[in-house]
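tokens incoming
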């Protein structure tokens, strides 16, 4: 029988809350205030509103302060830039989150890049991504960093492993590749123009699925004993990007959906916000 480990992001995030709460209390005792995250929500997208309220709730449970700035659908790029400038200048705010996606008429990249590097706790700025790629200090984008923290929690080393990332988005696929490379994996990135995905799936030691298509990868195509990270989440179908039927007979470890990568993303946003306050005060 195949032996495997379930990479339980929900349990890790739950366990990690105590440590994050402790750090939050220490910062409050030493510096007179708690770490604080400002979230910006633009427009009426119900999924974005849900994500922001989940993040607020998780912050509150740990004692991290949150303030949400709601802007209506008609908000302009300039208006958003001036709000970001105000939040950058506010010494009581440690992290800024601009919830993606913003309405199409707004220049999202320009707004992301206006966020001060030292408050970019969601890891969305070009400069932060450049630093990450160079192996320099930067807040990592929360989903891939959450995945790295989960691998670390289960003592899964990436060194010398062949890691395949399926997807190359700015927030997930690309920073994931950089983080795996920084952890000494040998990396391959697949995307919509990749021709031999099945061949790559058959040889990879670690596969990260970040495609955004429900059940896109058949887990039976994975190498025996490999590690599977499914970053996809499709709430309507309650599944990820991988068809998990038969998974326990194939892999040595995998993230369930839900309860794998998702809880790690929010936990990592809080982790980065606390780290930001520590860094801002330690110079
Ligand atoms: P995205 O921006 O839509 O990017 C999807 C990527 O998949 C693109 O790079 C695309 O390639 C690639 N792709 C599409 N069709 C493909 C195919 N047939 N073969 C190989 N690659 C293909 O998505 P994302 O924002 O990275 O999100 C990916 C998934 O992660 C989604 O399910 C999303 O819900 C989930 N997610 C979860 C969390 C979390 O907290 N759990 C956070 C963020 C995202 P091209 O570049 O060539 O178009």
């Amino acid at each position: 029988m195949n032996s495997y480990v379930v990479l339980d992001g929900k349990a890790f995030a739950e366990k990690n809350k105590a440590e994050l709460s402790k750090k939050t209390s220490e910062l409050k005792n030493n510096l007179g205030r708690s770490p604080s995250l400002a979230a910006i929500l633009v427009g009426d997208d119900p999924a974005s509103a849900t994500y922001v309220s989940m993040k607020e709730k998780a912050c509150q449970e740990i004692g991290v302060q949150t303030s949400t700035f709601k802007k209506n659908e008609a908000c302009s790029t300039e208006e958003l830039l001036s709000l970001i400038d105000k939040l950058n200048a506010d010494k009581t705010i440690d992290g800024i989150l601009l919830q993606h996606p913003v309405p199409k008429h707004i220049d999202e990249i320009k707004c992301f890049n206006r966020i001060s590097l030292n408050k970019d706790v969601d890891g969305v700025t070009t400069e932060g991504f450049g630093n990450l790629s160079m192996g320099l200090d930067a807040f990592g984008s929360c989903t891939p960093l959450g995945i790295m923290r989960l691998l670390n929690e289960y003592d899964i080393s990436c060194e010398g492993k062949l890691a395949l990332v399926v997807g190359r988005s700015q927030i997930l696929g690309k920073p994931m590749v950089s983080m795996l490379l920084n952890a000494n994996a040998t990396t391959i990135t697949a995307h919509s123009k990749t021709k031999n995905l099945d061949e790559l799936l058959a040889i990879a030691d670690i596969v990260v699925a970040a495609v955004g298509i429900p059940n896109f990868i058949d887990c039976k195509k994975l190498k025996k004993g490999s590690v599977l990270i499914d970053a996809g989440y499709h709430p309507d179908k309650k599944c990820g990007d991988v068809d998990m039927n038969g998974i326990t007979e194939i892999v040595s470890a995998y993230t369930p959906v839900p309860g794998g990568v998702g809880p790690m993303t929010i936990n990592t946003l809080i982790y980065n916000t606390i780290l930001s306050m520590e860094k801002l005060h330690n110079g």
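note: The mean pLDDT is 96.
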